[in-house]
Design goal:
2 domains, Rossmann fold, alpha+beta, two-stranded parallel sheet, single chain, 238 residues
């Protein structure tokens, strides 16, 4: 995530040294690599003057030395500005189009969702799910509702077997799960005196999936003061 290069050398010379350390890697393509990651103009500036984003660009260039069939990247968009992130997406898709595999780790789930074909979610040192991104998102059903009584609604939702998780976001409740019928949620809440003001389906995301898989299994309340989620939440073991 935070590699260290020789601080008094620029990107070009650092890559030349790295190529020699790896062995059997030609230095002829270093100029093209620097252009690919957007470091041409800073190629000969001392590394110690580089920003965090430039550090990430140089790290990516180092991983691409020798045109490996498998490229492993750790937090590759760390410090990149929006334009740099878009450029990185294009770079990764280009590698995939060439038939090369890219394995990356990242906490930026939105970026992972946009650039990766397959994903594995790791929590507490264990893989909790893995598969094609499209398939995982398609299997996820997410609904956002506003209700007359948030705390009471959370209590009711905790008893519904088809609700996986429910948490409060900006005054609304975000629910993951699969209702047995189109009106099942409204009926369950109305029977207990809670009314839905607004309900909408929202697209599944890796962020919602991660929260679904890693939230506590028992009903738990979080307050904005403890910084856990800025509201209340429930999760259910499956």
């Amino acid at each position: 995530e935070m590699p260290t290069f020789y601080p008094y050398m620029g990107a070009r010379d650092n890559l030349k040294i790295l190529a020699r350390l790896v062995g059997g890697v030609s230095t002829a393509g270093i100029g093209s690599l620097l252009d690919l990651v957007g470091l041409c103009q800073a190629a000969d500036r001392p590394y110690r003057t580089y920003s965090l984003g430039m550090n990430s660009r140089l790290s990516t260039a180092g991983a691409l030395l020798g045109e490996p069939e498998l490229v492993i990247l750790d937090e590759p968009t760390n410090g990149l500005d929006p334009a740099g992130i878009v450029q990185f997406r294009s770079l990764v898709r280009g590698l995939a189009d060439e038939g090369r595999a890219v394995l990356l780790s990242s906490h930026q789930l939105n970026e992972v969702q946009q650039v990766c074909d397959r994903v594995a979610i790791v929590h507490a040192g264990e893989v909790v799910t893995e598969g094609l991104v499209g398939s995982l998102l398609q299997a996820q059903r997410v609904m956002k509702i506003t209700v007359s009584d948030v705390e009471r609604a959370l209590e009711i939702l905790a008893d519904l077997t088809w609700v996986r998780t429910a948490r409060v976001e900006h005054g609304a409740i975000v629910i993951t799960g699969e209702a047995p019928g189109p009106f099942a949620l409204g009926e369950a809440l109305a029977r207990c005196g809670v009314w839905i003001g607004r309900a909408q389906r929202i697209e599944g995301s890796l962020e919602h999936l991660f929260m679904d898989l890693t939230q506590p299994s028992d009903t738990e309340e979080f307050s904005a003061s403890n910084g856990a989620a800025g509201g209340s939440a429930i999760g259910r073991e499956r």
